[in-house]
Amino acid sequence: MKIPPPSKIDTPYGGRLVWRLPGGNQMIAHLKDKQKIRHRKRWSQVGYTTVNHSTKPITSRK
Prior knowledge:
It is a single chain. The protein is α+β, with helices and mostly antiparallel strands. It is built from 1 helix and 3 strands; from the N terminus they run E-E-E-H. It is found in: Membrane. One of its GO terms (biological process) is chitin biosynthetic process. Its main location: membrane.
């Protein structure tokens, strides 16, 4: 079985490779360029992390 080379697509964060597999399925690889992406978390992600760590776990009732 021979698979043709992937399609190369430029994206705002780097690039994407898309292979068309036998049967019509796709395999997609997202490639990130460190020059194009932020290296820190967004404030919204920091807030979610704080909320998740400060809540108490839910226990089941018997």
